[in-house]
Amino acid sequence: IKCLFSPFIYIVGLLLLSLLLWVCLVYFVGIYVFVSGFLLVRLEVNRTSTCEDVLQPGHEDPQVNFCSSKPRFRKVIILIIDALKIDFARFDPDNQSPRPYENKLPVLEKMVSSKPTHSRLYPFRADPPTTTMQRIKGFTTGSLPTFVDVGNNFASSAILEDNLIHQFGQTGKRVVFMGDDTWESLFPKKFHRSLPFPSFNVKDLHTVDNGILQHIYPTMVGGDWDVLVAHFLGVDHCGHRFGPDHPAMADKLTQMDGVIRSVIERLQNDTLLVVMGDHGMTDSGDHGGESQKETDAAIFLYSPFPIFAGPPSQDEPDVVPQTDLVPTLALLLGIPIPYSSVGQVLLPLFPSHQQTEGAVGGLSQLEALWINAKQVNRFLETYSSLAKDIPLESLSQLKAEFSHISSEYLSSLRGGRSPSPQLLSFLQAYLASVRDTCRATWARFNPFKMVAGFTILALACLMCLILSEMSLLLIRESSAGLKTSVKVAACVSVSVAVVQLYTHGYMEVVWCFAAGAVSSEIVFFWKVCLLKDSFVSKNGSKAPKVVGWLKLRQLLVPPLVVLMLRCASLLSDSYVIAEGRVVTFLALSLALYIPVHLNWKGLLLPPSHDSLKCAGPLPSMVVSPSAVRKESSTLLGCLGLLVGSFYLSLSFHGCREELGSCQPSLFLSPLSRLQDSRLKNLHYVLAVAALCLWTFLLRRWLCHYGNLNASGVTVFTARWILPLLSVCLGLHWAVGATPEDSFRNLTELIRLAQLALPRTAFCLLGLGMLLILCDPLTVFLKTRASASGRSSSLPPPRYRASTGISPQAELHHLIPQIYQRMRRSLDDGDVSGSSEADHRPAVEAYGLGTVYSAPVLLFSGLLGMGLLLLHPEGMALSFLLLLLQMASLLHIHASSTTLYSGFNVPWTPVVLWSLASTEFFHATGHLPTFPSIQWSAAFVGFPDGHTGTLLPATLVTLNTFASHILFAAGCPLLLFWPLVCEVRGSRGGRACGDEAEDAVMEMRLREHPLHFSAALLQLSTRYLFINGAQVFASVCAAAILRRHLMVWKVFAPKLMFEASGFLVSSFFLLFGVMLVLRVDVAVSRWFKRLIPEASR
Amino acid sequence: MWDHEIRAMASTHAIIASSVFMATVLPAVFVPGFSVYGTHLVWLYSVSGAVTAVSVAVFWLLGITPPTKKHTLGYKLSRLFRSCLYFFLSCLFFHSVVVLYGAPLIESALETFSLAVLLTSLTTLRCLCVLGPSVQAWIRVFSRHGAMSVWDTCLQITVACTVVGAWLGAFPIPLDWDRPWQVWPVSCSLGAMIGFLTGLVGAPAWIHYHRKQLTYKSK
To answer: What does UniProt give as the signal peptide span (chain A) (predicted)?
Structure first.
């Protein structure tokens, strides 16, 4: 009992916090390393080329407009056949028994052989990722798009970079588009005319193609166009559905053959025809990765008049990179090359230098290359000034190369002599090396980093598991190898950095971090092994219990099986798409498992024969049948509430675009968008009611446990800030819901209110949290007048009798008992024999029993309100459900714990807690996709927008991960709740007539500080483990399925959301733990202050 | 020690399993256009009807049903009435549980209820046969020391297998394979049926294997 005042918790608490922080850091490093190898990041340059800046060679005069000169072609038809692999396009007359995909496009071969100066067929090599959206981006911008193009607007997928379509529009060309509707989202409002067809259903082979065929010929003949883009999807969908080796593919290719034939027939003289595939496919018909089968598509060029110098010669390229299409088309059509293109003009399409004399309007090879090189060099300079991801070495080398070429070219031009033939190859070499440099930087997965990140994460999960299983031992041994681990990590990462600096001249931060994390993990495992050995050698009898911690049977308990199922579900796109329901299903299963398990243990029904149950560090309790019955009914009632709120929460889900028939929840749209005024009123009333109930429940709970009596700042927060905040919220919703034109004379006031109300709420929230952190105590002290008479021989009345029998009053006075015991022990120490005093408490402390959980709960409640502010109004109901669910979960946990187990939090409630957080991520209208991010959250309180990016990013993050935050911050409650609910159980014991020990509630934690911190460590590492395992699973999914069709649509966004969710929840978990430790410090100070006073 | 009872159990289970088999095969012969996927509800009701009839008959013949305290007709009738009531209530219970698990509430209520009927006839009916209409006894059976006889252990195993089978049956539903057995509630009822059959085979085998460890308290 002495430890009630001891500062022991200081050291242990610091150790605990630093351990958790370290584990989190290791996780972060793992995620960072993996993501840096998986997600290729490129900075978008938002500049566009104009006619003025592409200068004719020879005229270094800014007045000459490039676009005004006559181009080679006036019109172009681009037929994109999705997934037209080069194997499909080739024709082998000797092949007697062609496979379904072979020899089905004879028209290409016929044209190439019969008109060699009119047409060419090349392999057309795409850059990974070979998915359609990325490819369209690639061959219109001429750049190498990556998964995350920074600067990209996530809300819409429109291409903001300079591109061909934009340039066509700029120079007044009419672009007509038909086919895959991806284009419509990439280039909104850029087309003169567009006929998009739905592309989502992969099973549908014909809708898009037939739609195009219906319109393409009339459009061609009609003449109201300059550029015609038609994107056929049938071949790709056929590949996905049947694979290339299927008769359906033969039909589809034959159809395409017919299309190309008829288009060629209708072709006019000034028109260029480009037939191309955007990517290839594997033998199973998939694409997305970087194998040659996926990257090698076909490109076929045809012009009604001869454009090539002769039949294909030796020096023509074997393979045309996809980026090369952009500058070629741009120069052939007389438009500027898009700003960020890194392609190289396709030389055979341009006349060589000697031939240009006389030819009208065409650029010679050298001129084209020179324009191209200048444009690429300009881009490179701009890009390198914005981003630092291109290695400096190669950058300076490229720069030197360009200045050399340019000086040679200009001098030869000035001198009037024909430039040397080497110049051509120099220019080509320069352009090729620029492209290679860029590709090396942007367009490749880095398998080493991926593997390293994967390993770090796996080890971190294992580490969490060990920490949670051996928390008590580790806390007792107190050092736990942490210091060594951190030291070793620092040393290793610094030495790796030094070695890198020494050998390469620069250092990659990723590898330093990775080395540090791995080494610290290894040191940790080594330390744990040592610790275990020493423990085994110390007390041999206990050894098997500790050694067997990682036995498979222990890991196959249902909660962990559910967790494994959850992780496995992240590996399938269908389950990720249906994630909200999958999580609900698993959580329900686990919730129903609790009573079944309890019943199996025979604890649900009162036992037929009496037995004393001794549970953990808690003193033994007599469990009477009536108490058991009561607990069971509470448990079943809470279970009903839990299941009900799970079911109701399903109605708040948003919809993924993949689920066609789904209707998003009605509550997701903000009030201002509702037209029907009755519906609007109903929604508003519901939301306000939910808000009031939220506030009321919190206050009711605090009041019930006597935490509202004191005069501290936390109580002030609960009494005043909480209601004020809800009033602010209600008013804010009302103001937001008013239609703009209804109160004309009040417009100014409304605008002011829209600005002021949320900001006031933010301020109140911040103030409340600060106050809670400042002084988290909610204990009210009442000194009895008779305190001085403790040595007198008054007849000792049971204090309980004097305070009435109402449970609330009883609760208020429960705590003196602990104080009494404390005093007794002190007295025993100081003055032996004066144990008479304990019958009448000198001091009554209201709310001491919930001194830990009250601030945590209040904090979560406040936080929840702040997060609710960032959501649409209808979500208030969902937040109320969240609160109810939390409460029922805690009660279930408390009941099942008082029924059989002890101090530690078992896996089941923790897994349920985490599943519930994922479930409410969905039930607050969020989805793990980028378009579903609620951007409007950034404008709450800032209706006119922001100047910086940090504040809106924070607001959107808080909005997106609201449920993660609430559940993580409330996680310590899982530890306290069984103690809070202890009263119920013990009262049952007294009803039986036994002289049961009085409940001391959370003061038990102070009696066993070691167990307390061990349990806290265990709880938080378990929660971290569960979340970390999910991150690990989505990392696995992204790594294994990186060639999957859905990788950029499903798995990569899921990974991003899971990783950021982990980041946010670990942060708030640490915050929650810190709050608990803060309370602990405050409580020990309080005791210290109290004792000298009282013993005076 | 338990040989006699195990043998009886194995033969009972063989009869029930063959009734399931017949309930699948016979309609295929007599009903035109019958298939387990296509006319799933027909199969479902034929199987649950067969299992119900056969189990009631077999358990009644075997005399495992707990002896009634009174032998008056009124008492027996009330027992019968209560059994029917429990059967129906259990259907409702399963229905609501399945709906809570995510089955559509209104759209395919008939399918969901049919699944509930199947589950009831595979689990609750057996409880009724072995323990009589007493929820207390049912709950008590599913605890570690709750089994009072070999039949109780067998009940535990078959019921657990059926429920787990139905639970596992829900797994393939969200997958985008477009198979006929992914349609609601085909996979769940098939899962329940497979689980039930596994339980029928597994229970005697498990009891036989563990017959040394099994001890029962007398009632």
So the answer is: none
